[in-house]
């Protein structure tokens, strides 16, 4: 165990994490390999264990002995990982959360449940529920589910479900988004599936198979089906072959430049040798 750490009311069976400048209270660490690393992290009422059975017992202990705050007494932190991979947390503040298979860097997490997240960079997550997230970068998530390999960057999600989608520079509130790509878009009380939306805001809409840019419907999602808006099919007018080809353009065409912008914004977020996770040793 690293120096400058405070551990209270904790047990450490079969665990050997590397801790540095961290405070862990009411916590249990077990079955972790030497590849696991926790650096400059504040963790409270936490469980760091890949064994779900022992986690259940520890959760009950936390509820009895933990802080009086209602948000903290309802849940605790559970960091689980397969034996072949480690959990790497860098400069993170975590309070009463559940995380699994996560590699995080410079993140703040509060009252959250995150599962199966391969990596997250400079992510601010508050009062959130996320599941099987592909990637997060500078996002604020509240009471939302992000699943099935979704990627969020510089956006906000509140009371929403995002599945198999990519969202860049936007906000989603009380909405369901599936199989879609959004850029500079605001959605509120919407149900969106198989759409590409760029620089457009919607409220109280049900959208299917469409491509919107600058507030205008410009095409179909791959030309597979008719565009559906609030349950009504919309036939896109096609004047000539050139317009027909434009109508059936793949969604990646409409999102052109999004990846370049993300790469530019992540240039200052490159990890130094000190921040890189330790190499895996079988």
From TrEMBL:
<feature type="compositionally biased region" description="Low complexity">
    <location>
        <begin position="67"/>
        <end position="85"/>
    </location>
</feature>
<protein>
    <submittedName>
        <fullName>Uncharacterized protein</fullName>
    </submittedName>
</protein>
<feature type="region of interest" description="Disordered">
    <location>
        <begin position="237"/>
        <end position="282"/>
    </location>
</feature>
<feature type="compositionally biased region" description="Basic and acidic residues">
    <location>
        <begin position="237"/>
        <end position="256"/>
    </location>
</feature>
<feature type="region of interest" description="Disordered">
    <location>
        <begin position="1"/>
        <end position="20"/>
    </location>
</feature>
<feature type="region of interest" description="Disordered">
    <location>
        <begin position="56"/>
        <end position="85"/>
    </location>
</feature>
